[in-house]
Amino acid sequence: MTYQRKSGILLHPTSLPSNFGIGDLGKPAYEFVDFLSKSGQKIWQILPLGPTGYEHSPYTMNFSAFAGNPLMISLEMLAEEGLLKPDELIPLQGENINPNRVNFDQVIPYKTKYLKQAYQEFKKSLLNNIEFEEFVEKYANWLEDYCLFMAIFEANNYLPWNQWEKSLARREKDALQKQREELKESILYHKFLQYKFFQQWTKLRKYTNEKDIQIIGDVSIYVCHNSAEVWGNPDIFKLNPETLESAYIAGVPPDFFSATGQVWGNPVYNWEVLEKTEFAWWIERFRATLEYVDLVRIDHFRGFEAYWEIPGGEETAINGKWVKAPGMEFFKTMETKLGKLPVLAEDLGIITPPVEELRNTFDFPGMKILQFAFGDDSNNPYLPHNYIRNCLVYTGTHDNDTTIGWWEKSDDKQKEFVAKYLGYSSFDEVKAINWDLIRLALNSVAETAILPLQDILDLDNNSRMNDPSITPGNWRWRYQSNDLLTPELAEKLLQLTRIYNR
What is the 3-state secondary structure of 275-324? Predict the structure, then answer.
């Protein structure tokens, strides 16, 4: 795939500033897009937009691969529609409210109260709402199952679906119909939430595209076991037929960074079943994703060539094994059904020649991370002089520390290598490592350069989005105010962008 030379910023919507404890799709999002435009950026990269559960990872703890996260719905935009009263919107306050962190325990009940109020007002005009009816009909293939799943999930005190009554867990027709009747109010409420989420997102995306900015979305290869997708399609996952638990789970093997590997806990796919359907579920997933983003980054791309399969119940990844996946056939089928795919491959980790062949066969650009570049010698593939044009370069991703945080933790040997590479005589001369790496990314031959907003805002380790080695407390960072996105900062980034023809 060939791209024009461009750059952009990585920022998840939950990290936007807000009076309501979490970033949303309201005015601050539009102000951020304005900053992108003023600074000459052509890309806004986000993380998966789905509703999240335990610890709120958009990659491993999502209730749906298709639905949107209701916590991102702008209350102020609901008020503009008349679904809420503006004077009743009270900013979330309290001792545990930090403008730089999302406190989900407080945000969820706080926003839910307002969303339910808006729903009650919305119902008054339901009979004449043709647009809502069209939305429900258009997305019925995933919306019906998702809303039923959420209604039953809540009615069962948030127990995982395989612990529900057997007839519900196994989706017996009569039992499901009974739930549809008994829980119709809750089901309608969840349809309302999805309607408003996608209505607001569609409006924001249109505004973004009109500024000549594309949105890179993110598809996590795996989904959460406790999700509408696994409950609704158990045959395409490797589940224990008796307990309906995951018979095998995803992760990565032991390596230099972890002696026991990583256990993600997501069920792995039954690729034999998926192949027989011509990958129908995946085709629908991609089709849905491409309706609300312009480009798709595939997380853990290497899992389409071979994946690390761990027996269910294991606490470490040591006893896993590599299992071949039908990557070539998968992407050939996808292109036959959907056309040329605007896909970006997250090809980090253990990348073998077959993974590279899969990526190159379909001309998918891979990723280069500058924070990985200075660990050994000049042959390191993440050093800019070793890049090919068809790739994306990042100072760091959502899984990395901020550049300042990374620099502060680097040893003197690595700092010395960085300094020499940048043209300094000593690392003591380095005064703004984040801007040095931003410049290095922008001036590389990589056709796309992506910069985390934390690096542009000169933020340290306290603003890290995710640390893969730690489960609790991730995915909570947000910045305090759009006042930080000053005209001077936009001009500084614009000048660099122009110098390097981005």
Answer: HHCCCHHHHHHHHHHCCCCCEEEEECHHHHCEEEEEECCCCCCCCCEEEE
pLDDT tens readout for residues 47-94: 999 999 889 999 988 999 999 999 999 999 999 999 999 999 999 988
Q: Does domain 6-499 have CATH number 3.30.70.260?
A: no
Q: Which residue has the tokens 């690595």?
A: 414
DSSP state of 477: B
pLDDT in tens, 299-321: 999 999 999 999 999 999 999 99
Look up tokens 């070539």; give the residue: 328
Q: Which of 130, 144, 13 is nearest to 66 (CA)?
A: 144
Two tokens, residue 52? 């999240």
List the catalytic residues.
Answer: 299, 346, 399
The structure tokens 């009940």 sit at: 109
Angle at 220 between CA 214 and CA 226, to 5 degrees: 135
Q: What is the residue-wise DSSP string for 400-452?
A: SPPHHHHHHHS-HHHHHHHHHHHT-SSGGG-S-HHHHHHHHHHTSS-SEEEEE
On the 0-12 / 13-18 / 19+ scale of CB atoms within 10 A, 424 is: middle
Domain ranges of the chain: 6-499
